[in-house]
TrEMBL record:
InterPro entries: Rrp9-like (IPR039241), WD40/YVTN_repeat-like_dom_sf (IPR015943), WD40_PAC1 (IPR020472), WD40_repeat_CS (IPR019775), WD40_repeat_dom_sf (IPR036322), WD40_rpt (IPR001680). SUPFAM superfamilies: WD40 repeat-like. GO terms for molecular function: U3 snoRNA binding. This is U3 small nucleolar RNA-interacting protein 2. Component of a nucleolar small nuclear ribonucleoprotein particle (snoRNP) thought to participate in the processing and modification of pre-ribosomal RNA (pre-rRNA). Part of the small subunit (SSU) processome, first precursor of the small eukaryotic ribosomal subunit. During the assembly of the SSU processome in the nucleolus, many ribosome biogenesis factors, an RNA chaperone and ribosomal proteins associate with the nascent pre-rRNA and work in concert to generate RNA folding, modifications, rearrangements and cleavage as well as targeted degradation of pre-ribosomal RNA by the RNA exosome. Keywords: Acetylation, Isopeptide bond, Methylation, Nucleus, Phosphoprotein, Repeat, Ribonucleoprotein, RNA-binding, rRNA processing, Ubl conjugation, WD repeat. Its main location: nucleus. Belongs to the WD repeat RRP9 family. Interacts specifically with the U3 small nucleolar RNA (U3 snoRNA). Binds a sub-fragment of the U3 snoRNA surrounding the B/C motif (3UBC). This association with the U3BC RNA is dependent on the binding of a protein called 15.5K to the box B/C motif. The association of the protein with the U3BC RNA was found to be also dependent on a conserved RNA structure that flanks the box B/C motif. Part of the small subunit (SSU) processome, composed of more than 70 proteins and the RNA chaperone small nucleolar RNA (snoRNA) U3.
Length: 473
């Protein structure tokens, strides 16, 4: 990818104690946090830390330095010995396999072959959950696959029991509904008062974040659906949200062309990143301290490396890029309104594979146009993808060897705009958020569509059991 220096907004990078002070120490739970109020710029903060470190180093004599490095070396040796002893105490093949998988996953090289085992979905077993009055725009599945959270253009949030975990008695039951309010009632009203466009859940299942057309990000307690904070600071619709895996760091993207970084546990704003030339339409992140964004009509996908203050720019679609998802730490999939689906490797500027007219062509006002791609999803670290449009079906795809090919697998008939797609953690089912209109606008309306959530079970061909656990089957 092409490197571009990353400019920052007026925000300062604050962590730990600084962030707690920024949050006012004992700030009331539902107070607004704005990203406009941070004094120190990130680069100034980093410079200060570097200068302080340089001052410390001056006081050390060569002998002291030698002694310090020798102690450090001995400590590392001791730790290494301890780790080796620990590993020796475990069953060798199991540990070896698990370590190998972890290393490959971190490098983005793990590709579990799931796609070839997926059977044609049984249409009679698809469950449809209603509840939102207007089009469903976004959804997430809780990390344990037990709950589904969804939101809509009517401003409402719904938490319901998932249909498919074994032993659930009341499956599909609505556990919590936060209704949408009228415009301008955010102060009196618990929930959103405009279209909700995006949501994210932290990897420990503790926090839910939702973003709306009215520039607001709301943070919720995922267990109780109680609102905890409102984050303000974006100057236009909030269109993408993602928690960094294993942390409570939240990334937000907006039509104001910025990405903002927040610390949800500390109730604090961290910094703002600039670079896109047009509205940002989607965002995703995994374990690393970086995120990827789809840049709408500027035609770029960007990878933001937050500690390095740099970004990589990827070009390949012809139209507006409307959705993006990381498959693993090194590969991602995106979809655009030119009808194309692209597979990217983070080391190459151009797509590694591109499926044009992935959902076929439509006749729009007498013109032949490709069906827009409105949603993409991936089973993490595998070769199974799903794409959505308003073409009347959700499509499942297999990524070819080394992510260099996209092969169509199955079509699942679903009428309406597929505005959001998510696989369960194990890849046993796929959830689609369906609406009569596109998530970001009102270009067409499909009257016969139902504003709903569809849960699609994915059966696998019986594979020989392997000792590595369910995810490797």
């Amino acid at each position: 990818g092409q490197h571009v220096g990353l400019q920052h907004g007026g925000g300062g990078r604050q962590t730990g104690q600084g962030a707690a002070e920024a949050a006012g120490g004992g700030r009331p739970a539902d107070e607004e946090v704005s990203s406009d109020s941070e004094p120190e710029s990130p680069s100034a903060g980093r410079r200060r830390r570097r200068e302080a470190a340089a001052e410390d180093e001056v006081d050390e004599t060569p002998q002291e330095k030698k002694l310090r490095l020798a102690k450090l070396y001995l400590e590392q040796l001791r730790q290494h010995e301890e780790e080796e002893q620990e590993a020796a105490a475990q069953p060798e093949d199991l540990i070896g396999d698990r370590l190998k998988e972890d290393v490959l996953e971190q490098r983005g090289q793990l590709q579990r072959p799931v796609a070839r085992e997926v059977q044609a979905p049984d249409l009679t077993s698809i469950r449809v959950l209603r509840g939102h009055q207007l089009p469903v725009t976004c959804l997430v599945i809780s990390p344990d696959d037990k709950f589904i959270f969804s939101a809509s253009k009517d401003g409402s949030l719904i938490k319901c029991n998932n249909v498919f975990p074994a032993g659930e008695v009341e499956s599909g039951k609505r556990l919590c509904v936060v209704p949408g309010g009228k415009k301008g009632t955010e102060e009196r009203h618990m929930g959103h008062a405009s279209h909700v466009l995006c949501m994210a859940i932290s990897s420990d299942g503790k926090y839910l974040a939702t973003g709306d057309r009215n520039k607001l990000i709301m943070i919720w307690d995922a267990a109780t659906c109680k609102r905890l904070h409102i984050f303000t600071g974006h100057h236009d619709a909030v269109s993408g949200l993602s928690f960094q895996k294993g942390t409570h760091q939240l990334y937000s993207a907006s039509h104001d062309r910025c990405v903002k970084v927040w610390n949800v546990a500390e109730n604090a704003y961290v910094e703002t990143l600039f670079g896109h030339q047009d509205v940002i339409t989607g965002l995703d992140s995994l374990r690393r301290e970086c995120c990827v964004t789809s840049g709408g009509r500027d035609g770029t996908v960007r990878l933001w490396k937050i500690p390095e203050e740099s970004q990589l720019v990827f070009c390949g679609h012809q139209g507006s890029i409307d959705c993006i998802q990381l498959i693993n730490e090194e590969h991602m999939v995106s979809g655009a309104d030119d009808g194309s689906v692209a597979l990217w490797g983070l080391t190459k500027k151009k797509p590694m594979a591109l499926a044009r007219e992935a959902h076929g062509m439509q006749d729009a006002q007498g013109l032949q146009q490709p069906y827009w791609i409105s949603a993409v999803a991936a089973v993490r670290s595998s070769d199974l993808l799903a794409t959505g449009s308003h073409s009347g079906s959700v499509k499942l795809w297999k990524c070819g060897e080394g992510f260099r090919k996209l092969e169509p697998l199955w079509d699942i008939p679903l009428v309406g705009f597929i505005n959001s797609l998510k696989f369960s953690a194990t890849g046993d089912f796929l959830v689609a958020g369906v609406g009569q209109e596109h998530r970001l606008g009102r270009w067409w309306r499909i009257k016969e569509a139902k504003n709903s959530i569809c849960i699609i079970p994915l059966k696998r061909k019986a594979a020989p059991l392997s000792p590595k656990g369910p995810n490797s089957s």
